[in-house]
Amino acid sequence: MKKWFAVIGDPIAHSKSPFMHNTWFHEMGIDATYIPIHVKSEQLEEAVAALKLLGASGWNVTIPHKESIIPLLDDIDPIAQKMGAVNTVVRLNDGSLKGYNTDGAGFVHALEEAVGKNKEKKVLMIGAGGASRGIAFALQQYGYEQIHIANRTVLKAEAIIQELGEGIALSLEQAEKQLNQYGIIIQATSLGLSTGENKLPISLDLLQEGTIVADIVYNPLMTPFLLEAEKRQAKIVTGLGMFIHQGAIAFNHWLGQYPNTEKMMEKLIEQLK
Ligand code: ATR
Fold this sequence. Notes:
One of its GO terms (molecular function) is shikimate 3-dehydrogenase (NADP+) activity. The active site is at residue 66. This protein has ten helices and twelve strands. By secondary structure, the chain is α/β, with parallel strands linked by helices. The chain has two domains: 3-101 and 241-272, Rossmann fold, CATH 3.40.50; 104-238, Rossmann fold. The strands form two sheets. A six-stranded mixed beta sheet has the order 2-1-3-5-6-4. Strands 9-8-7-10-11-12 form a six-stranded parallel beta sheet, sandwiched between helices. The chain is globular, with a radius of gyration of 19 Å. The two termini are 37 Å apart.
C-alpha cells in the first residue's frame, strides 16, 4: 500500500520539505507521498489524532509545534527529550508514535559534508534559542571538544552551557573581541531571516581568513552574516545543508534508507536562486 507522510506547522505554505521528500521518493522508487498540512496551535491535538486515524507513517513537525507535540506522543528519543523539542514523528508497527529530533544532528552532518570533521577546532555559537540548543547538544554528542555560546541575553547562553556540563557562555561583545580564537563560527540567531532585520549579531572585523562560518538560515541562502564572512575569505556553510540533512535523517528513521543529499543541494540551490 502507498505510504504517506506530512509536515505540520503554521505557517507551512513555503516549506521545501514536500518537494524534497517527494523528489527522494521518486528518485528511489518508493511508493509514497508527502504533503504539507497547515495546523494552528489550537488544532494540534486533533491533527495528531487525524494523522494517526488516517494512517500516516510519519511526519515532520515545525514551528510552532516542536515542543507542544511531546505530550501527545507515546515515546520520545532521549536526544529529543534532552532538547525538549521534536521535529520528526515515526509511527511504529504497533501503531504507537515515537518522537525524534534531527535538527542538531542535521547541522553536524551538513557541516561535516561541507568542510569535513574539525572536532578539535574551537566552536563559537551565536544565539541561545531552541535552534542553538539542539546544535550545541549535537556538537557535543559528535565529539566537538570546545563549545562557546554567545548571546544577547547571556543568561540563556549560561543555561545551555550548564546543561552541556562544559563550555563557556559569553556576551556578544566578548565574542566579537576574541573572534580570532575560533575555528568554527555558527550564526544561530533569528537575524538574517529574509523577513527579519538586516543586520549582523556581531561584527566580523577580527575574523581570520579560512575560518569556517555557518548560518542556520537558508532563505536567503547567503545571509548578511555569510556575505560579510565571505568577503573576509571564510569557508562558508549555508543553512541549506542543515535543512536537507534534518530531512534525510528523518527519512532514514521512516524508511531505513539514507537519501542523496548532494543532489538535493543542487536542486534546492536552483530553487532558491
Ligand atoms: P530559535 O528557536 O529559532 O532558536 P528563539 O528561541 O526565538 O529562536 O531564539 C532566537 C535567538 O536569536 C536568541 O538567541 C535571540 O537572542 P536573545 O536570547 O537575547 O533574545 C537571538 N536574537 C533575536 N534577535 C536578535 C537581535 N536583534 N540581536 C541579537 N540576537 C538576537
